[in-house]
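Researcher: For the annotation table, I need structure tokens for Transcriptional regulator. Please keep the output clean. Sequence:
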Amino acid sequence: MHPNPLFHSDDRAMIEAMIVQVGVGTVFGQTRTGPCAARTPLIVHGAGRLQYHLAKSNPLVDGLDGGSALVTVDGPDGYISPRWYATRDTVPTWNYVSVEAVGTVRKLDDDELEAFLHRLIDTHENRLGGDRWDASEASTGTWDRLFGGIAGFELQVEAYRPTIKLSQDKPAEVRRHIAAGLEASGQHDLAAAMIEAGA
């Protein structure tokens, strides 16, 4: 988390909406051989609960249930050039949106894992539009084999630590120039985030 309080937010609804929109994060935990991280799809399941799954062979799996974990979710990010400021007598920086979620982990039972997978599939198939795929199209053998290879977890979030670093420490005119520069360079998501934040 960035130390500047200008880049923080207590807006839990906005934080969880960002997690839903991004849909994937990184789980960090301690294993017998040291710290480990794994990328995984995420579902917000009620207020302050994040569900995800990992391959059973992942070293994190054995130590998560009942333990603490950190989940990070990254939104848009990008290089900010001094060319977009009124004066070039400065240095580049990096703007980004990121959330850390810290909490206690509980292993999902098979019914909860099954429900999580169907929610995950529905969420992402609906985003694609068109002729969606349904889990019933997988044969029982295929589904059972793959289901048997994963473990599901739920993080009960004790704290969200967001960083929304979108040049809030700069005057409004500079923020507008940065957003225009990002848009012109093809970084549409970061430009949109800056505009939404008041650029």
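Researcher: And a one-line annotation?
Model: The CA atoms of residues 55 and 146 lie 9 Å apart.
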